Amino acid sequence: MTKFDEATQAIRVDEHTYDVCLDPGYAIGGPLNGGYLMAVILRAAVDASPFEHPVSTTAQFHKAPVAGPAQVVVEPLKAGRTVAFARARLVQDGVTQIESLITTATLQDVEPIYADEPAFEMPPVEECAKLPDPKPESGMTLNAQMELRFDPPTIGWLHGRPSGRPESRAYFRMAEPQDPDPYVLALAVDVLPPVIFSSGSRGWAPTVDLTWHLRALPAPGWLTLLGSGRLVADGWFDEEVEVRDSTGRLVAQSRQLARVGRG
Question: Which InterPro entries does the record match to this protein (predicted)?
Fold first, then answer.
């Protein structure tokens, strides 16, 4: 069991309830990363399902959970021969923090009938850049759990030169050697810096709603994350992330709605 597996572990208490312990190592300046929290919820939802993989997840973030004990409550809605539906809630101190709808199925490792090209061609990993290590007092503990190598133009904001477009692109893998799986993908779709950093905004940008789809089981190696946005207006922005595995295959895609950063 890797550190990430342990940090997302869900222990069954009864037919619908799972005990979890939210790990402080996945914080982004205080709040816990939304992708990490989805991975925790999905561990429980998949355990309660007759199928192996979370193919579609929609999560609404009501509150920001804190590190420590919590529960995932899973309510099965319908199960057929090839797909099942459930509602799952992350509850802490009796209050629902995140509510999600999850579709599970069992994916097969088959060749696609059709597959499009990546939205952007990344430079080689060795030509990409790493962000500076955060200061201990920043509370950015998530950085220590993963490796990100950025396409240099998308982190111009770090030096006061944002590109002017909502975008973020990077290679991603866990810091501890681990082949990517659906739970790592749940984390991956939400680990890029908010795309609005490249359009000139800064600060914590809380996610309100995030939907992501598992499209294929990933091959070992680096994942490629291609993030973009379509509209920044009235204090809101959208962010879409395309995830490709080391073979170039599309393995996950997401879209989220978030508030423009503040602070």
Answer: ACOT8-like_C, Acyl-CoA_hotdog, HotDog_dom_sf, Sec_Metab_Biosynth-Assoc, TesB_ACOT8-like_N
